[in-house]
Amino acid sequence: MAGDSHVKLFIPGPVEVRPAILSAQAMPMIGHRSSEYANLQARILPKLRPAFGTQGRVFVVTASGSGLQEAAARNCVRERCLCMVNGAFSQRWYEIVLANGKQADAVKEPWGRAVRPERVDERLRTGQYDAVTVVYNETSTGVFSPVPEIAAVVRRYPDVLLLVDAVSCAGGVDIRADEWGLDVCLTSSQKALALPPGLALCSVSERAMQRAASVPQRGWYFDFLEYDKYAAKNHTPATPAVSLMVALDTQLDAIAAEGWAARFARHQRLMQQVHRWVEANGFEFFAEAGYRSPTVTAVQNKRGINVGALNTYLRQRGMVISDGYGPLKGQTFRIAHMGDVTEEEVAQLLEAMTAFLKQS
Ligand code: PLP
Fold it and tell me: What pLDDT was estimated at residue 4?
């Protein structure tokens, strides 16, 4: 399948998808109102719960992760939302909340810094907010914010919902939505779950469902109440991406076989492997110490290497990494270490990067 032209992705999404998962999608089509489809969805949902650490509701929506960012805004923000912004995707979520006609305030941290729980507390004390958005893993900066501590703060405010974007870490880190009290925890299929793009997945708390029931104009496509109604019959309101659901079913079995805890531990080892390379090669981290992402490392380009030339070199060897995001292009580069990638594959990438440094 992977011919000469196959370039292995070490970019923070889409990530590499194993051939077995790609070919799972090639099964003959089934009707989405058939019992076969209902059985498929019924199999999937319980197997997905460990990704979020929930015994409660999980929804799989045909959309990318941004769709569920929009859903969280529409279903869960009553009037005014506090948006913690420390990078490009948290900034975009703030804009999505506003674009859905809700009021919102952005509390900004410089890029590279984590969200501070005490700043969340400071703002919630004003009593102005009924929801908070936080990006767990800022893909633009490689920052992993302290969501358990942030959740502990938010839970002191019974009327405030905590909405968490775990797009680039769910499936690679141990998330405990029930234990920590996350009201919505959302992700995309093309990141640490190592599937093709096209599905958005989330856990939704009982509190969030109750909030949705009291919020008018939730729209239709992303209405949690509609989703819940159809989920009772193992269906979805609109036609789902059936082939991707088959791929998800297959991948969840593979993840269970690896073991969720083993998968999370592998992600920690991959992060350490990349960290050792960064330190040994005269670079620095863009993310502040103590808050570095287990799934994507943003490297400060201290040596001023030509990232485009590095990627040309890597592509000739069948691999590619990511440049810095937006304004960080050239100043940083990003190495993704998430999904089904192995330590051997990361070692091959790092060896090639070292060889590039030697010859440039
Ligand atoms: N949030 C984060 C942290 C992301 O990294 C991304 C995409 O990279 C998104 C949201 C948007 O997700 P999608 O592209 O699946 O809509």
Answer: 61
